[in-house]
TrEMBL record:
Main location: cytoplasm
This enzyme's EC code(s): 6.1.1.1
Positions in coiled-coil regions: none
Gene3D superfamilies the UniProt entry points to: HUPs, Tyrosyl-Transfer RNA Synthetase
Protein name: Tyrosine--tRNA ligase
EC supergroup of this enzyme: ligase
InterPro entries referenced in this protein's UniProt entry, alphabetically: aa-tRNA-synth_Ic, Rossmann-like_a/b/a_fold, Tyr-tRNA-ligase, Tyr-tRNA-ligase_arc/euk-type, Tyr-tRNA_synthase
Entry superkingdom: Eukaryota
Keywords linked to the UniProt accession: Aminoacyl-tRNA synthetase, ATP-binding, Cytoplasm, Ligase, Nucleotide-binding, Nucleus, Protein biosynthesis
One annotated GO molecular function: ATP binding
Length: 434
């Protein structure tokens, strides 16, 4: 049976932290039209596993019949102060596209249904730039700086490029033809900026959907620019286990706990997607899972009760393994110290290793991607290659030029003097000193 507009809306908005303008999406669904959305990412630092939150959510959009555009915001990457130099942006854009395709495949999301667009393909056009100038004529410095406060690199004396960033992201909604933009809750100020200023240019106000942000391994936001807060998509198993082992996970403390939050925001949603797929519940997306890579089992142990979405292995002497059908119960057990941090960390590390295995394999099997990776993120400690000294090649001077020419001239003059009996006056430089 076809899903009702209400069921599609529930699928589109489940597990989100906030929705702005949801009524406009409901209206589109009620009319029987296909909603269009875009999710964008600026190719700056190496993508980390926090991206799983947004990329997993895209499966829900496809199940609800939403047309999804993935924006590789290369111009934004350059404008974001101190992150990606212009000469690296093109390489990083290719790197990001390879990563995203590999992650989507590992999640069973059909990439044939996704439209990938590079920002520079339309952001450098005459029409877009004129709209940008129109926007600059009505936006105050205060509003531009405030809008980008959570996203753009903040420095004491901000560059003009960073102030342009929010305006361009707002214009993207118009030029990509979307009904709603999807992003992290850290984008909220840019979203409200777009809602305020796009209508002033005569364009429609869009809806905005926001996913929660996974805390870093040491607390705070997981960030591409902080290697200690994140796990990269290409990290090997030993690096994953080492980072999880050192992550903040105080017994009984669920606040700012990146390990516990990863279970809530990534592992359980992926388990639910896989369980639903096993039951044929993929909505309008009949292609989901067809070309999936890697182990597609949910993160549950063999023999777990029906409905389990996450399991923690534990030896029988310590009470046996634990099985959870919802995150709330896991959180409560952790706060009551029924779940030891070591057991939780081991379970989470095992799940992440499973998640990353097909992504790493895709990288190892793709030589072109490996070359792009080295160009996109060159080793900062690598010593520059010494330039070879050019070998000196002797080129004899043309006739009548150079030292030999002077010596030849002197010989000719001397010979002429002998033949005529005249005295020869020697040049001053050849006279012996007295």
């Amino acid at each position: 049976m076809a899903a009702s507009p209400e069921e599609k809306y529930e699928l589109i908005t489940r597990r989100l932290q906030e929705v702005l303008g949801g009524d406009s999406i409901k209206a589109i669904l009620a009319e029987g039209r296909t909603p269009k959305c875009y999710w964008g990412t600026a190719p700056t630092g190496r993508p980390h596993i926090g991206y799983f939150v947004a990329l997993t959510k895209i499966a829900d959009f496809l199940r609800a019949g939403v047309e999804v555009t993935v924006l590789l915001a290369d111009v934004h990457a350059f404008l974001d102060n101190l992150k990606a130099p212009l000469e690296l942006v093109a390489h990083r854009t290719k790197y990001y596209q390879n990563i995203l395709l590999a992650v989507f495949a590992s999640l069973g999301i059909p990439t044939s249904k996704l439209r990938f667009v590079e920002g520079s393909s339309y952001q450098l056009t005459k029409e877009y730039n004129l709209d940008n100038y129109r926007l600059c004529a009505i936006v105050t410095e205060h509003d531009a700086k405030k809008a980008g406060a959570e996203v753009v690199k903040q420095v004491e004396s901000p560059l003009l490029s960073g102030l342009l960033y929010p305006g361009l992201q707002a214009l993207d909604e118009q030029y990509l033809g979307c009904d709603f933009q999807f992003g992290g809750v850290d984008q909220r100020k840019i979203f409200t900026f777009a809602e305020l200023y796009l209508p002033r240019l005569g364009y429609a106000k869009r809806a905005h959907l926001m996913n929660p942000m996974v805390p870093g391994l040491g607390g705070g936001k997981m960030s591409s620019s902080d290697p200690n807060s994140k796990i990269d998509f290409l990290d090997p198993p030993e690096a994953v286990r080492r980072k999880i082992k050192g992550a903040f996970c105080e017994e009984g403390n669920s606040a700012e706990n990146g390990v516990l939050s990863f279970v809530e925001m990534v592992l359980i949603p992926i388990s639910q997607l896989r369980l639903e797929r096993l039951h044929g519940d993929t909505g309008t997306d009949s292609e989901e899972g067809q070309n999936a890579t890697g182990d597609q089992r949910p993160f549950v142990l063999e023999g777990a009760p029906e409905g389990t979405v996450f399991s923690i292995f534990r030896k029988e002497e310590y009470g046996g393994s634990l099985h959870y059908q919802a995150y709330e119960r896991l959180k409560r057990d952790f706060e009551e110290k029924k779940v030891h941090p070591k057991d939780l960390k081991t379970a989470v590390a095992d799940c992440i290793v499973r998640l990353l295995e097909p992504i790493r394999k895709a990288f190892e099997d793709n030589e072109e991607w490996q070359k792009v990776e080295k160009l996109a993120y060159p080793d900062p400690n690598a010593k520059p290659e010494k330039k070879k000294k050019k070998e000196k090649v002797y080129h004899p001077p043309p006739p009548g030029k150079g030292k030999n020419a002077k010596q030849g001239l002197a010989a000719e003059v001397g010979a002429a003097a002998v033949s005529t009996g005249e005295d020869v006056v020697q040049p001053a430089v050849d006279r012996p000193s007295t």
